[in-house]
Design brief:
- This protein is an alpha/beta fold.
- The protein has a single domain, classed as Anaerobic Ribonucleotide-triphosphate Reductase Large Chain.
- It is built from 15 helices and 14 strands.
- The strands form two sheets. Strands 1, 2, 3, 4, 5, 6, 7, 8, 9, 10, 11 and 14 form a twelve-stranded mixed beta sheet that branches. Strands 12-13 form a two-stranded antiparallel ribbon.
- Strand 4, helix 6 and strand 5 form a beta-alpha-beta unit.
- Helix 5 crosses helix 6 and helix 7 packs across helix 14.
- The relative contact order is 0.13.
- The mean pLDDT is 88.
């Protein structure tokens, strides 16, 4: 049972500190929709999604109103389309993507994830078809998100896939150039992608997951910042960084409890199993809902100042500790996100030159995901993008952690110019990429072998 003080604390989180459930994501397996006939396959897909998603938004809104805790986003994740749509070529993949987009619109969800391929060890025909279809598929749809897993700690890094994705990211940017390369905001390249991510753009429903499942993504960077501020203000000189860590851990516990409660009630109302609570600190562009502002609360002038990586490591670890104690169903990514355009404080630091791509890469060694929502010059060579992807995949592979790259080459724009994606995607100043030429390295192709610690059975 909660004490009176804890109830009041939670109410303050709701009223003043941007506490919400960031997403409830309905996972739907499409394996029983498979057909060699494209029309039949897309009809099966739309019928199944409609069957389970028809009441998702209404139920989330009703439960949010009941508890006074908004469910900001309602989303759907599906089985990797490169697998279930394997019989079809690139044109067929585009048609599937459009059918999924229509299903998302019919269900009135924000996004649908799962236009995905898992190619860490090699390509199937379906994988190649889906990746080839990406520019047209993402340019002709509104709500579809795509993820491509090109590396894992067990398999190494598929450098052919890394090279291909460097080229395709530029092609997607060009196909959506009227919107500042917006298609790239819905495309992410992963190492060690989890099977149960509720957050976009990486969400998909893994092969080992249930037929249908509810996963919830909780958030609350504003709550964590306010908790730290209150604790520091009320203590004397004996308040140490260990005490800060304890505050973060306790706050993550409360936030996770709230999110899991909402997720389980949604699952119960829909008669669908509950899966996981992903307790990632996912920011928005709103002031007061920023991961970057937490760094100022612990004494840094800005995120990016010396000490940033150490603070992020502590933040990520304490969020996981608090959440794991609050729930036996923690999953997904669960930690701290650092998406540049989606976080007002991080975006300001990048604009001011306090955060370089190299510093962001260093931070990804200890955070939840990786290089996220970073705008770069539109004329960046494909080999440079591939080299950045390879570096980030290596961090994930060696450290047995999830890492990802979501770069947005903005066509026709250069360093210092600002691109505005709108809504939750925010805005960002275009930052320079590292100098030097990676072409020869990327052209080798093949696969970087898995590290020796992959051999633990």
């Amino acid at each position: 049972m909660l004490t009176e003080r804890e109830v009041i604390s939670t109410l303050n989180m709701l009223r003043n500190e941007h506490l919400d459930v960031r997403t409830v994501t309905l996972g739907v397996s499409l394996f029983d929709c498979v057909s060699h006939d494209l029309d039949l396959f897309t009809a099966n897909v739309q019928a199944k999604i409609s069957k389970y998603a028809a009441n998702l938004v209404r139920v989330c809104d009703e439960i949010g109103d009941k508890y006074g805790i908004p469910v900001v986003n309602k989303r759907i994740s599906v089985s990797p389309i490169a697998v279930v749509g394997a019989p079809f070529g690139p044109d067929g993949m585009v048609r599937i993507c459009k059918a999924l987009d229509q299903a998302a619109k019919d269900a009135n969800v924000n996004f649908l994830g799962g236009f995905s391929a898992l190619v860490e060890k090699g390509f199937t025909t379906g994988d190649r078809a889906l990746i080839e279809a990406l520019p047209e598929a993402l340019a002709s749809t509104e709500r579809i998100c795509s993820s491509i897993n090109v590396a894992s700690s067990r398999s190494g890094i598929n450098m052919d896939a890394v090279a291909l994705m460097g080229r395709q990211i530029l092609n997607v940017a060009e196909a959506t150039k009227e919107n500042g390369g917006l298609g790239c905001a819905k495309l992410v390249v992963f190492a060690n992608i989890p099977q149960d991510v509720p957050f976009m753009a990486g969400a998909y429903l893994g092969i080992g997951e249930p037929d249908v499942v509810i996963n919830v993504g909780v958030s609350g960077p504003g709550v964590v910042k306010k908790a730290i501020d209150r604790a520091i203000e009320g203590r004397g000189d004996d308040f140490t960084i260990m005490d800060v860590a304890e505050v973060i851990k306790r706050t993550a516990f409360k936030v996770t409890r709230v999110g899991e409660m909402i997720g389980k009630e949604v699952a119960k109302r829909l008669n669908i199993p509950f899966g996981v609570a992903d307790l990632s600190l996912a920011p928005t562009p709103a002031v007061g809902d920023s991961v970057g502002e937490i760094f100022q609360s612990v004494g840094l002038s800005s995120i990016g100042a010396p000490g940033t990586t150490a603070v992020l490591a502590m933040l990520n670890d304490c969020v996981k500790k608090g959440g794991a104690f609050a729930s036996s169903s923690v999953g997904g990514l669960s930690g701290a996100f650092i998406p540049v355009s989606e976080d007002s404080s991080i975006e300001a630091a990048a604009t001011a030159g306090l955060l370089s791509l190299e510093k962001l890469e260093a931070m990804t060694s200890v955070c939840s995901v990786g290089l996220d929502m970073i705008a770069i010059p539109g004329d960046t060579p494909a080999s440079t993008i591939s080299g950045i992807i390879a570096d980030e995949m290596a961090i994930g592979m060696i450290n047995h952690k999830t890492t990802a790259v979501r770069l947005i080459p903005v066509p026709g724009m250069g360093v210092g110019e600002v691109v505005n994606f709108g809504g939750l995607l925010g805005k960002a100043a275009i930052i320079p990429v590292p100098r030097g030429d990676s072409t020869g390295f990327i052209n080798f192709g093949g696969r970087i072998p898995a590290p020796i610690h992959s051999l633990k059975n």
